[in-house]
Amino acid sequence: MTDTKSLTPYKWLVLGSCVAMLALSYLAMPTYEEIGDEIGYMLRVTARIAFLFLMLAYIARPVRMLLGNVSSLRTGVRQYMKHRRFLGLAMAIAHTVHAGYIASLQLVLGQELGIEILVLGGGALVFMWLMAATSNGPSVDLLGKNWRRLHLFGLHYLWLVFVYTFAGRIAEDPWYIVAVVAGVLGLLLRSWVYWSVRSKRAR
What we know:
globular, single chain, mainly alpha
């Protein structure tokens, strides 16, 4: 098991970068006359930051399998893999803030949340918080194989919710095309590496 103490400085670097991105995005918010526009801005920003950290965690394992044997990259890839847990926690921080802004749509603006948001988004939050709560050594030991099942399913469920949501907003902003393409490429990378490893084992 990885020595947690040796990862502490990097842990705070990863988590701190997430908090800094959220704070800077808030400080850089354009001047809006309506609070609804401010909430909408922060909803977009927090979703994008959460998606960034999700994708960094999502492609960590295939990156290790593809580049882990390259001598010049081995150390960097190894450190990347060691810290993927903190990438997931950073994603949880950003997405929890995002959830707070979603709640403000109803609490502040009185806007009704659609069933799609409640079911898909609510499910994503449940899995995300379960994954964050079990991102530690004792939980791995306690849950055994179920730990991997939880995190594997939750990771792909979160990926699906993000990509599905972004795909539905491409008409609003071309940026979402980039996000969807990045998400699909991440899935293809994981799938390709997975089936490559399986085919080698079957030989």
